[in-house]
Specification:
This protein is an alpha+beta fold and 102 residues long. Helix content is 34%, strand content 30%. It has a four-stranded antiparallel β-sheet with strand order 2-3-1-4. The chain starts with a strand and ends in a 5-residue tail after the last helix. Belongs to the YciI family.
Length: 102
């Protein structure tokens, strides 16, 4: 399993982004339900967001986010940075060790 920091950067004014926050969060819930996402949230100040994600490959993660409303509506760009989580809190161990749901 590969682990990633996903960074979202808004490409349009925040007022336009806010119109699609609910569909974006509903789409992210699919990632949570599938075990792809551990956490997500907006940057402060609100110029985009960050997520902690996992997937079999970068291509699989990019495929998932290609359907995100922020991407589909060209509201934001997505950057994927793979990392090796060698240290972590014990309470998160299962998420790092278990494969995502099918």
């Amino acid at each position: 399993m590969k682990h990633f920091i996903v960074e979202i950067s808004y490409l349009v004014p925040l007022e336009r982004v806010q119109q699609s926050v609910a569909p974006h969060r509903a789409y992210l819930q699919l990632g949570y339900d599938a075990g792809l996402l551990l956490c997500s949230g907006p940057k402060v100040p609100a110029t985009g967001g960050f997520m902690l994600a996992r997937a079999e490959s970068l291509a699989a993660l990019q495929e998932f986010f290609a359907q995100d409303p922020f991407h589909a509506e060209k509201l934001a760009s997505f950057t994927f940075s793979e990392f090796n989580p060698v240290k972590r809190q014990g309470w998160a161990e299962a998420w790092f060790a278990e494969p995502p749901a099918a």
